[in-house]
Amino acid sequence: MTVVLFFVGFFLITKGADLFINSTVNIGKRLNISELILGATIVSFATTLPELTVSTLASIKGHTTMSLGNAIGSIMCNTGLILGLVSFISPFKVDKKMFISKSIILLTSISTLMLLGMDSKISRIDGFILLSICIFYMYSNYKSVSNNRINSTNTKENQGISFWIKTLILFLVGLFMMILGSKTLVDNGIKIAEFLGIPQGIISLTVIALGTSLPELVSSLTAIKKNCHSLCVGNVLGANILNIVSVVAISSIPNSIPVLSQSMKIDFPFMIVLLLSLIIPTIFTKKVSRLQGLILLMIYFVYISFLSFMYI
Predict the structure, then answer these.
(1) What's the pTM value of the predicted model, to 2 decimals?
(2) For the chain, how big is the Rg over CA atoms in Å?
(3) CA nearest 134: which of 33, 40, 234?
């Protein structure tokens, strides 16, 4: 039954992502919003819900170490595994202006988090500081949407309320299926791993970290399948920003989050190297190449291997 539920979770995520991306693309076309902005707003907010739920509940229950680890692990997974895999499979060009603006906010968020964590904790006040960046990020997205809409004729299809009702229902159903599928897959994946005798430390680094990032992974792979690459990179950048300014920020409100020495000495340096490997070449070439994707994947697997050896 555990194995059956594992594959049921996988099916729910895959089918849910298909509905989710189709409805999101339709929304973007009707509102004339670029894929990159769409990915950084609607898609990234939606696909970050598993991280937000897991981290906030962990903080409320007193498992505060998991809150930061889940957020940082998701950033590593989003950038190294997801974007690395996507660009390795299908290299793509990016909108340089939009990419730079999102990258600046991402690097600012990470720098702020590291500075706030120098006293070995993220307090409630620190959380509100991060939330202020989140508010600025949402405002910048609003301005981007306003400035990048293309004038279009108000067709009956654009105006029809039935279209919007149907699209919204499919969007919510797809999102629900991805979240439910993620939870089902992770819960039963952990049981399978424990049955096979895999150490708890390895499980938390792989199954759980990957599990909360499954919506981003499947939606990104579905996006490139539908030739919506900018939606993918927007999703990853947006989700990374939200992991810091919403997931960590909100999780620090019930209880302060401890910042372990491992985070400062290992996790943060690897994360910075990974993000710079994505951002710097992309700014100069205006694209994410296959070689770049391979480098991102290698950095991610070196990081996972390094942590695995620490736990063995």
Answers:
(1) 0.77
(2) 19
(3) 40
pLDDT band for position 125 (50/70/90)?
Answer: very high
User: What are φ and ψ of residue 253, in 5° steps?
Assistant: -75, -45
Topology of the domain comprising 2-146+156-311: A middle domain of Talin 1 (1.20.1420)
Integer Cα distance of 173 and 192 in angstroms: 28
Tell me which amino acid residue 153 is: T
Q: Is there a contact between 50 and 179 (Cβ–Cβ < 8 Å)?
A: yes
Predicted local confidence at residue 201, as pLDDT: 47
Of the candidates 271, 252, 254, the one whose C-alpha atom is nearest the C-alpha of residue 262 is 271
pLDDT digit string, tens, across residues 39-82? 777 777 777 777 777 677 778 877 777 778 778 888 998 899 98
pLDDT in tens, 34-50: 666 777 777 777 777 77
Q: Alpha carbon 241 to chain centroid distance?
A: 8
CA neighbor of 291 nearest in space, from 302, 283, 282: 282
The mean pLDDT of 206-214, rounded to a whole number, is: 66
Tell me the HSE value of 200 on the side-chain side, using a 13 A CA sphere. Answer: 0
